[in-house]
């Protein structure tokens, strides 16, 4: 029977909901955008050239090195020509409108990647840029809606749509609805023939053939990530297209007038297109994973899961060292973004593949299910490892303005990475809960037994530290943007119950010594404590908005919400374990 929400133990949670409604700022979708609204001229929306150039170049050096959309030299030539014209002509010409639509979406996408020092130097700040970015995307969306339907089947318009989807995910502007647009993109791309090998058209120039290859892979990746995020079936299968990956060349190696493509570089040589090529090598297996886990009649075939897992792990192992290894001293911002993005997408698919097995067979002691449990923990730790940099910087009591406190990829505010950090952290919580059951039998005294116990102790400490990093990540999100309240509260509840259980057990988490006399918390007892902490963070939200952003080392943390269908599955196991 559903419990009465007015019960005393729900009061803290209800207070959080009331306070969140009061503090949550109005978002862009609350602004009226009826068809009769006057469409703003793109020229009037442009910021200063200094800020515009900074944001465009930031996009081109980060996101454009992953999901390829434009030919950089051609775009920059048009961009420079536009500014040198003195803005004395109307932006109603089709070519100029398309150019500015691309630029506005690029700037919006890069707005969450900018550091405070660069923004101040360009005459802007994070708060105002956030609101302006929403206005840019709204204007581009209205402009796309005003284009006649037959005119939308155009490569330039397709580029604008891909940039719009990317930007909506990056700044969390209706990012949850991006799956609708992703499905539409696939249909339009197929109608334009992007899914076919360009060499089948004898009159296709090398320039347009390369652009079509890049754009098709970008559209497919957008659809694939939307499928993993929303839990919806893919709109296409591997057999539906034969478009090959693009060439591993730099954009300067070919131009619109090229009659032949330059020789390809080795895959170990990192170019702006290497990321897309390497990611395409695992595209088939990742599409199979999305198809498997999103079937309406989910049937877990252990052999199929292990085969897909091995293929994905093999693709990860065969990736160039620049995309999978730890950064070196000569690491660049571009390489860091590519590496962070690549590892996130690969481990995201690995966790999505094994998570259903873990949730359905966590208590079954069979080798095939134990392998999924190990893979889940490995993928979760790999995803949470991107928060370790945040933990190190947060320990510094006086961060320098402009410090990058998060890997670039984790500055993205929603959509594409909306629940991956939560699922990774909650999977680690489940693993620790299972370890509590596994450690019921104490080992006999002896040197080897002590070494085994110490090894298990250090592993638990490392796993708990990864959860603490995730909590710090979501705590900052609640405090700075009044988002991810439910995510933070649930994770806080589970962490408190686990931490106190380990502290009161025979093997304390903090090291040697006698067990603590502290009482172990149940979920019912931890719930009001977590809700109260969330309420405190929300109450500090208004004060946080008036602070200088440069004083907050963590204000770049992205927004994450919880997929409601998974919350009961995780909590149910913890509740069952307490009974």
From TrEMBL:
Biological processes annotated in GO: DNA-templated transcription
Annotated TM spans: none
Domain Xylanolytic transcriptional activator regulatory residues, every copy: 178-252
The entry's keywords: DNA-binding, Metal-binding, Nucleus, Transcription, Transcription regulation, Zinc
Alphabetized GO MF terms: DNA-binding transcription activator activity, RNA polymerase II-specific; RNA polymerase II cis-regulatory region sequence-specific DNA binding; zinc ion binding
CDD domains: fungal_TF_MHR
Any one Pfam family match given in the protein's UniProt record, by short name: Fungal_trans
One term under GO cellular component: nucleus
Keyword Transcription regulation among UniProt keywords: yes
InterPro entries linked to this entry: Fungal_TF_Env_Response, XnlR_reg_dom
Keyword Disulfide bond: no
Protein name listed in UniProt: Metal ion resistance protein/transporter (Zrc1)
């Amino acid at each position: 029977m559903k419990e009465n929400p007015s019960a005393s133990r729900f009061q803290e949670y209800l207070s959080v909901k009331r306070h969140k409604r009061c503090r949550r700022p109005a978002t862009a979708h609350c602004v009226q955008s009826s068809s009769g609204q006057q469409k703003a001229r793109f020229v009037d929306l442009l910021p200063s050239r200094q800020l515009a150039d900074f944001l465009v170049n930031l996009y081109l050096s980060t996101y454009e090195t992953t999901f390829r959309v434009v030919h950089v030299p051609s775009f920059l030539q048009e961009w420079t020509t536009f500014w040198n014209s003195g803005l004395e002509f109307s932006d109603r010409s089709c070519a100029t409108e398309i150019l500015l639509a691309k630029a506005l979406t690029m700037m919006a996408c890069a707005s969450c990647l900018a550091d405070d020092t660069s923004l101040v130097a360009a005459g802007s700040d994070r708060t105002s840029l956030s609101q302006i970015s929403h206005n840019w995307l709204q204007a581009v969306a209205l402009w796309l809606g005003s284009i006649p339907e037959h005119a939308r089947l155009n490569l330039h318009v397709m580029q604008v749509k891909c940039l719009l989807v990317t930007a909506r995910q990056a700044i969390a502007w209706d990012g949850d609805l991006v799956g609708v647009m992703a499905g539409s993109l696939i249909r339009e791309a197929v109608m334009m023939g992007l899914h076919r090998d360009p060499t089948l058209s004898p009159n296709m120039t090398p320039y347009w053939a390369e652009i079509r290859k890049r754009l098709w892979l970008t559209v497919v990746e957008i659809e694939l990530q939307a499928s993993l995020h929303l839990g919806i079936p893919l709109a296409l299968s591997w057999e539906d297209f034969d478009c090959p990956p693009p060439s591993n060349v730099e954009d300067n190696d070919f131009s619109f007038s090229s009659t032949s493509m330059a020789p390809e570089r080795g895959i170990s040589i990192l170019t702006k297109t290497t990321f897309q090529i390497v990611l395409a090598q695992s595209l088939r297996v990742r599409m199979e994973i999305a198809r498997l886990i999103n079937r309406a009649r989910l049937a877990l075939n252990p052999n199929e899961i292990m085969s897909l897992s091995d293929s994905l792990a093999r693709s990860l192992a065969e990736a160039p060292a620049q995309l999978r290894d730890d950064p070196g001293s000569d690491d660049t911002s571009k390489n860091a973004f590519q590496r962070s993005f690549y590892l996130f997408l690969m481990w995201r698919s690995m966790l999505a593949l094994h998570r259903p097995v873990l949730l359905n067979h966590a208590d079954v002691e069979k080798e095939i299910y134990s392998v999924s449990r190990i893979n889940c923990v490995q993928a979760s730790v790999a995803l949470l490892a991107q928060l370790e940099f945040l933990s190190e910087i947060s320990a510094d009591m006086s961060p320098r303005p402009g410090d990058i406190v998060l890997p670039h990829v984790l500055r993205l505010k929603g959509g594409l990475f909306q629940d991956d950090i939560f699922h990774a952290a909650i999977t680690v919580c489940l693993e620790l809960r299972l370890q509590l059951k596994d450690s019921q039998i104490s080992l006999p005294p002896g040197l080897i037994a002590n070494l085994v116990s110490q090894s298990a102790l250090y592993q638990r400490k490392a796993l708990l530290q990864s959860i603490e990093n995730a909590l710090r990540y979501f705590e900052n999100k609640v405090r700075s943007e009044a988002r991810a309240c439910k995510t933070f509260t649930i994770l806080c509840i589970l962490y408190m119950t686990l931490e106190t259980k380990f502290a009161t057990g025979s093997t304390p988490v903090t090291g040697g010594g006698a067990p603590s006399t502290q009482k172990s918390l149940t979920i019912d007892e931890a719930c009001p404590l977590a809700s109260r902490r969330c309420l405190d963070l929300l109450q500090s939200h208004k004060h946080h908005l008036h602070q200088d952003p440069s004083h907050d080392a963590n204000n770049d943390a992205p927004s994450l919400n919880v997929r409601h269908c998974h919350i009961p599955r995780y909590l149910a196991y913890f509740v069952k374990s307490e009974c």
